[in-house]
Amino acid sequence: MGYLRRGLWVLLWTAAFFAGVYGLNYLYVESGDSDWCRVLWHNYYAQERNIDCLYLGSSHVYCDIEPAVLDTLNGKNNFNLSSGSQLLNGSYYLLREADRRHDLEHVYLEMFYVVSTGPTGIYDENVANNWRNTDYMRLSFNKLEYMLDMSKREQYAETIFPFLRFRSKLFDYEYVRDMMRHKGTENYREYVVNIPYEDGSATYYADKGYYETTRQLEENGLRWTGSYRMEEEPLTEDAERYLRKIIEYCQEKQIGITLFSSPIYELQVLSTEHYDRYVEQIERIAAEYGIHYYDFNLCREEFLPIQQTENFMDIGHLNTRGADLYTPVFWQVMSGTAEENEAYFYPSYTAKLQETSPRIYGIYSADAAVNGLVDSGVTVYRVAANRPQDLEYSITLTPNAAEKTAETEGTGKKYRDFSSNPYFGIPKNTNGTCTVAARIRGQESVLQTLEIAY
Known about the structure:
Elements: H1 2-28, H2 34-45, E1 53-56, H3 59-62, H4 67-74, E2 78-80, H5 88-101, E3 106-110, H6 128-134, H7 141-150, H8 156-160, H9 173-183, H10 186-189, E4 194-196, E5 202-205, E6 211-213, E7 223-224, H11 237-252, E8 256-261, H12 266-271, H13 275-289, E9 293-295, H14 320-334, H15 338-341, H16 349-355, E10 360-365, E11 378-385, E12 391-399, E13 413-419, E14 423-427, E15 432-440, E16 448-453
Helix pairs in contact: 4-14, 5-7, 5-11
């Protein structure tokens, strides 16, 4: 009888402990961007049909690939189990989670370069990317292994008990009130993500991991400050290790696997300056395992005419218009043979740039000391062009009205007349419009003009 009583006390204390943790998480764990993953995991666990085709990766999956369209095209149940900036260690454990509950036929793993190279490719320094998933996954041995593997030892407590990340808010009653107000809304209770914007566009969670949006990239948004330059063999050790683990897991379980990269706006790809280094490394690893890698940034325009601003919500993600265009082409490639698919792609990114018509796409931040631009008071930019050897540019900087001086009165201050030099500097902590005009070298007529806010 004593053992029974002690057992009941243990059960009661355990239940009280978990109830307390749940309550503290509810009070303090901020929703915001994580609302997306909360709805995603609810939708995933509600799946009654077997998931046949699983799509893993970053937001370039959930913005770009429409499962409902694929359901019609391939007659399978397709699901995007993707999350913002999903690291490959996260993709590995999400694959295992899906394999526990479903008889997977094929996995399509998206290979966005940012989560596999540079500082984001060092996974234990980016644990928050994985918290988006572990906060909402159901308890299992796979989840526990995921949490311990993704975290440094000093991060275990915050990984296992999410409310500890917000301990600075313990007595911030305004913060708690705002959390309760948000979590008391009908959208929160009914697992709905619906975000309206001032321009009349909107974003909402459609179904099966698809992020539908009518937002559209505007020309004045064509300024990119990312700094992911492709070194030799740019894939980090963490990224390569988990890429191999994912491939080997699928092959051991006899699950088909294909690697791919979704199209992003040319400005961002050009900013890497040596994108082929990344493509070549992924292609070598894929060939080693006898699988395929398709990079849609190398897709020929006659098959995928996607590089217009109206197809993108920002320079990295398609909007619904772009996804409508991309998804059928994606499946046409995935359902074809390697020999058939050769016609769709350029042999390299360099070949693509040289074979397409001269064009500029925006400006991106460059190294600080280029061509004598070492002034600490300016930010150095480079014009993003597909064929810089054939183009020359003029640069005009027009400060906002509040920042104009006698020197900059008028329509704008010409920074530089037409020159083949793609680099220029913009004074730091200033706002205005940068006008870039491009023309073919030696010609008088202007080929293209962009007005970009800075």
